[in-house]
């Protein structure tokens, strides 16, 4: 191991000594795969036969008309198998796991999307699979838990700490330090110790590569802006990386503004100034922590953005100004989602809808000759319980009450 | 001087005992009592863990102790004050165990200086491999403090050597994979592994992870210099109360 | 109007006099579109930008290994936007509706898939939308109802008759005979009066055209068999039509065997001999009816196959032997679904899983050099309540009970 | 002979009344009572609807009557027996109204022959356009029975002519779009439409859909030959019982 994986001072690999050889092995396998063109071909073929890559770029005509500004194009990661961009990363790491000859995968999950994606990959590759999920999220995202279990994954509710994503990551590491010999930890976002941020971003780069080609083909020029929601940062890195060499394209990352500013109210590490630089979960970045360095509770209507840290690569892009970071509040998010569903028949996940909020605020200022791209990282089917609650849908509540009655009578 | 203390002490003891506590668990008064009991029981040195909200390398027992300590307000400043007092009151060496973010947020230089000023002699930072620890290592050296690195069964010969060279005072060999507080089988593999540790460094070797009984300690005798008892004491205290610490320790080394 | 739309004596247009001009208009618009190559291009472009056509053909390696026979290829209609092949038909009729200058669409729905697809299309095209859905199905498929309403569609529970698909179709016609001036009835399957069976099959033919190309590209030869589940018959027609000119490809349609033979126990109109030829819902085909010609109740675990009639085109293909019809029982269906989820990480809808049942029974007899294609008409996210019940998942019940408690406390 | 009956009857009445019942609703005894009341009230001819499970062209009221009749066992055979009896007992013409599947399953030829044998004079099949009705039309002609087709406001002149030519006895003009049992506005549009109907055929014209009151009937006088009252009588019976039929009818034509 040598010191590596730094981005303007963010990142690194702060790992327990026991995992050093495991990370050396992973790094080697990743480098090797990256230098092997056949690997990328195999990956692209898998994603185009098992999932439906390239995913379409959809012109949102009605929303464009509503705001009377730039044309709004939507990159449809929601059409991936399992319903989110998470599939890209997971399938890539699945190929790598097989390459390393390992037979078991573990993963953490917040929204459950990465858990479902990992369980799916494990079923397809024939790996054993254990998913760690914060107890809070297990309840918030029960439908995803249901499908993970159907796929043969063991879902372990994590009861320590804040019982959300960060604690699931800790538990996954605790599993890994014990079972590294046969187990690969499929980290779900562009965070964690090197090489995860770089590796996950590489697998997600498909999004940006496709989006850039597609928008050029569609409009003959580059978009003015590209929007993505930011949890750990993988879908944002995926889209943004396609435009890093195009300084004229403004990159906008949107974090969870929750109930607004103030520690504990949100999960905005870069857009608000409640976060400070620290080192946890194996890497250095901005964390929502207190003076002593203890991680603090976060809040978001979307489990997938409800996380204390952020990709070290995005932290660097924040410092050097290449990416602008904004935050969207829970209420804005539910509105933007409802609007998108109503006007376009598209169902962005709650996480995704954060990106839509910011785009809606700004596209009006741009010219109709221009375009913007929003990354629809996932679909909201999984969010039906959360959305129904947010919208206080009485019919849904009636239905659940009736279902419960039915179960009570069976019991 | 931590190293020389250990060598000296080994003259009349064939195995030393290092115990571990989580500062502020269940509260600082209890912690103080535990230290008193342990010193009275004759432990040779002690690990003081400053609680952290993300103790990635710790198992259920210490994990729980960390978060409860924090819930009861175990701030870093209080941990320093506690350490200062025990160093004054008891003449065995104390070392800190904590995660890197605690140092980083305090300021690595300031943290090490504070250690020096209160007389804590070394530190174990399980999430700080030497490659990431330059600033820390320099500061520790400046103040003549002991950075204690961790040997593992997975580490290559070269790496064990390197870790030994980066360490002062002693090295901490973990008996197995996994987190703290799980069972360990004391057998041939462990012997072989301890042999490899011995070859890799001249520093004293502390063996930790899963040391819980008199047999365990007896097994270690002659193969390592220090037996480390961590989670087990917390279990004992949770089960039988603070007063049970002394008899437990005495039984361990008897 | 002249006598037309017959297939070996099945089909026709038995419509109320008031709708004759409406059908003449529809027929003309359809003919016109069909002769206009630009229309098909526009349709294909829409499906490749709004949905992700061409949908992939996935090799199910694990299932193939399990049965040790022909290679199992799966046509991934589940990756369509809204999660089923229904999107194809609906988007096509959407374009046609706009072409006819109408501003409102109505639709019937069983599983809710066609309802969601229609509501989605209406949102995208800016049409008003009313969906008729049997009261029974409204409860069986609440998540789909939830999304339809989010998209601005009015969902009307139909309380007449058996309160399932056929009754929803009657209600839709009752709406249409009143509002034909501004309203197009987007029929959801290859049934009903001419030109619906032919037109819906045309829009669904994308499936078979793509599948044929894909399997030839993949294996260099045609598949031995093609499997599809059969409700009204649209996904089956879509797949099968790609192979009509390939007599060596055996076409297998799988109906809902429910609890087994006997009127009222199933919805198998062709595989079992409980159905007789009749005329209802505007067309002539095999119906599950009694001696007097009164339609009888049907049963299936899958709302989408729970229908008394079947496409007149398939009835003809049954008579002339071109398509073999089989039935799968509820229990077999749940098993096949669980197996597919577990082994491939694919989540076929309950309807779809009927096709998997029959394929699983037969692929073992074929040679590993051969292949079969199964049409995965949709995904099962919508079925989570049904599947959870079928599998009696205690965690799911616990979750629902807790949710209900929560709502009760809010109230 | 249905046509001549109507012409004859029109000599001394400027508007005839055709009522409608769903056979077996709520049961056959009640149906019989209703027929008695209606004949006693002086209706000129009657529509007997054989229940069908999928009455696509009917509105809520008749839809409900159909399914309840079926729930209470209104088989086709019973409907024939009922029809046979009323034809014997009352000397006004009766016509069947039902959907095509009822004929088809019975056998179109056999069904028409049975009609003839029991003396039902015509039939209205709302889901059978002439294009699909060849077998039916031939059979009806053979037995000298009257196929009654439906005129609609949407029908072109040519189509109205064609429908007229295919019809015998009279034609059934629906007053508006939609299903049975909804409100109809009796105004200029209706006048114009009835004018078009008149031009298209020399057969008597029955106007149906939404005829519910004395005013409605008065409006039709002179513009059509027959006023058809359908759903409204069912509403009246459901509300006020069978005995209320006679006064209701008498009030209608008074
Ligand atoms: C649909 C969706 N979008 C976005 C995210 C956030 O993750 P990331 O920032 O890594 O893209 C998640 C995480 O679960 C997700 O499910
Ligand atoms: C997923 C799915 N498959 C199949 C069907 C059956 O319809 P069809 O036979 O027209 O394909 C439905 C109907 O709702 C469906 O939702």
Q: What radius of gyration of chain A results from the CA coordinates?
A: 20 Å
Distance between the termini of chain B: 27 Å
User: Strand arrangement, largest sheet of chain B?
Assistant: 5-4-3-2-1-9-8-7-6
Sheet-strand content of chain A, in percent, reads: 15-25%
Bound molecules: pyridoxal-5'-phosphate
Name the poorly predicted regions of chain B.
none
The low-confidence parts of chain A are none
Roughly what is the average pLDDT of chain A, rounded to an integer?
96
Structural class by secondary-structure content of chain A? alpha/beta
What profile does the largest beta sheet of chain A have?
Answer: 6 strands, mixed
Main interface: chain pair and counts? A-C, 63 and 63 residues
Integer average pLDDT of chain B: 95
- Backbone shape of chain A: globular
Order of the strands making up the biggest sheet of chain A: 3-4-14-9-10-13
**Helical region count of chain B?**
12
**How would you sum up the global shape of chain B?**
globular
The total of beta strands of chain B comes to: 9
Distance between the termini of chain A: 57 Å
| Oligomeric nature of the chains | heterotetramer
Please supply descriptive tags for the structure shown above.
heterotetramer; A: 411 residues; six-stranded mixed β-sheet; 14 strands; 45% helix; globular; B: 254 residues; nine-stranded parallel β-sheet; 12 helices; binds pyridoxal-5'-phosphate
What does this protein look like?
The complex is a heterotetramer, with 2 copies of chain A (411 residues) and 2 copies of chain B (254 residues). With 411 residues, chain A is an alpha/beta fold. Chain A has 15 helices and 14 strands. Chain A has helices at residues 20-35, 37-49, 61-67, 86-99, 113-125, 135-140, 142-150, 165-179, 196-219, 234-240, 312-319, 330-344, 350-362, 384-390, 394-410, and strands spanning 6-7, 10-11, 57-59, 71-75, 104-109, 128-134, 154-158, 183-185, 225-229, 250-258, 276-280, 283-287, 323-329, 371-375. In chain A, the strands form 4 sheets. A 6-stranded mixed β-sheet of chain A has the order 3-4-14-9-10-13, sandwiched between helices. Chain A is globular. Chain B is of the alpha/beta class. Chain B is 50% helix and 14% strand. Chain B has helices at residues 2-12, 28-41, 60-71, 76-89, 100-106, 108-118, 134-142, 157-166, 188-200, 214-220, 231-240, 245-253; strands at 16-22, 45-49, 94-97, 122-124, 146-148, 150-151, 171-174, 205-208, 226-229. In chain B, β7 (171-174), α9 (188-200) and β8 (205-208) form a beta-alpha-beta unit. In chain B, α2 packs parallel to α12 (245-253), α5 crosses α6 (108-118) and α8 packs across α9. The two termini of chain B are 27 Å apart. The mean pLDDT of chain B is 95. The chains are: A alpha/beta (411), B alpha/beta (254). At the A-C interface, β3, α5, α7, α12 and α14 of A face β3, α5, α7, α12 and α14 of C. The structure holds pyridoxal-5'-phosphate (2 copies). One pyridoxal-5'-phosphate binds next to α5, α10 and α13 of chain C. One pyridoxal-5'-phosphate (PLP) is lined by residues 84, 86, 110-111, 113-114, 189, 229-236, 304-305, 349, 351-352, 377-378 of chain A.
């Amino acid at each position: 191991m040598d010191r590596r994986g730094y981005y303007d001072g963010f990142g690194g690999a702060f790992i327990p000594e026991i995992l050093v050889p495991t990370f050396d092995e992973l790094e080697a396998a990743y480098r090797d795969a990256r230098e092997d063109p056949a690997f990328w071909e195999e990956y692209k073929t898998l994603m185009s036969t098992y999932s439906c890559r390239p995913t379409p770029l959809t012109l949102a005509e009605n929303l464009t008309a509503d705001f009377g500004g730039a044309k709004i194009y939507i990159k449809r990661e929601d059409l991936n198998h399992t319903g989110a961009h998470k599939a890209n990363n997971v399938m890539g790491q699945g190929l790598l796991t097989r390459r390393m000859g390992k037979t078991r995968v573990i993963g953490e999950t917040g929204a459950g999307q990465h858990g479902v994606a990992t369980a799916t990959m494990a079923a397809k590759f024939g790996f054993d699979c254990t998913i760690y999920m914060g107890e809070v999220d297990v309840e918030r995202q029960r439908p995803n838990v249901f499908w993970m279990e159907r796929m043969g994954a063991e879902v372990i509710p994590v009861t320590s700490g804040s019982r959300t994503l960060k604690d699931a990551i800790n538990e996954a590491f605790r599993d890994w330090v014990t079972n590294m010999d046969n187990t690969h930890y499929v980290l779900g976002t562009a965070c964690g110790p090197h090489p995860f941020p770089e590796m996950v971003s590489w697998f997600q780069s498909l999004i940006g590569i496709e989006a850039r080609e597609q928008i050029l083909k569609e409009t003959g020029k580059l978009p003015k802006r590209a929007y993505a929601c930011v949890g750990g940062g993988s879908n944002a890195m995926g889209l943004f990386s396609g435009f890093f060499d195009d300084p004229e394209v403004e990159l906008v990352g949107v974090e969870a503004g929750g109930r607004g500013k103030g520690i504990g109210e949100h999960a905005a590490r870069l857009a608000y100034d409640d976060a400070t630089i620290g080192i946890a979960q194996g890497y250095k970045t901005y964390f929502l922590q207190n003076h002593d360095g203890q991680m603090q509770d976060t809040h978001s209507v979307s489990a997938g953005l409800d996380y204390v840290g952020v990709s070290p690569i995005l932290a660097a892009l924040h410092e050097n100004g290449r990416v602008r970071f904004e935050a969207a509040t829970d209420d804005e998010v539910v509105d933007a989602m409802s609007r998108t569903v109503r006007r376009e028949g598209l169902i962005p996940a709650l996480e995704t809808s954060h990106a839509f909020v910011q785009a809606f605020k700004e596209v009006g200022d741009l010219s109709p000759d221009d375009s913007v791209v929003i990354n629809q990282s996932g679909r909201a089917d999984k969010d039906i319980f959360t959305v129904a609650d947010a919208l206080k849908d009485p019919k849904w509540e009636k239905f659940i009450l009736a279902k419960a009655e039915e179960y009570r009578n069976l019991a | 001087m931590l190293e020389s203390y250990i060598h000296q002490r080994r003259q009349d003891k064939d195995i030393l005992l290092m115990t571990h506590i989580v500062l502020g668990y269940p509260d600082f008064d209890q912690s103080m009592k535990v230290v008193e009991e342990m010193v009275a029981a004759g432990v040779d040195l002690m690990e003081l863990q400053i609680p952290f909200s993300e103790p990635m390398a710790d198992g259920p027992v210490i994990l729980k102790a960390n978060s409860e300590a924090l819930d009861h307000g175990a701030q870093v400043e209080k941990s320093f004050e506690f350490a200062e007092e025990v160093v004054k009151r008891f003449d065995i060496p104390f070392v800190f165990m904590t995660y890197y973010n605690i140092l980083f947020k305090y300021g690595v230089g300031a943290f090490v200086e504070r250690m020096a000023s209160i007389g804590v002699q070394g530190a174990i930072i399980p999430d700080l491999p030497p490659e990431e620890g330059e600033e820390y290592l320099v500061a520790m050296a400046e103040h003549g403090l002991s950075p204690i690195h961790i040997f593992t069964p997975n580490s290559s010969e070269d790496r064990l050597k390197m870790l030994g060279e980066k360490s002062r005072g002693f090295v901490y060999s973990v008996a197995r994979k996994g987190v703290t507080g799980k069972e360990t089988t004391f057998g041939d593999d462990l012997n072989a592994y301890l042999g490899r540790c011995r070859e890799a460094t001249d520093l004293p070797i502390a063996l930790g992870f899963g040391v819980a009984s008199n047999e365990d300690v007896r097994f270690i005798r002659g193969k390592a210099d220090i037996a480390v008892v961590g989670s087990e004491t917390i279990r004992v205290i949770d089960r039988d109360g603070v007063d049970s610490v002394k008899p437990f320790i005495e039984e361990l080394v008897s």
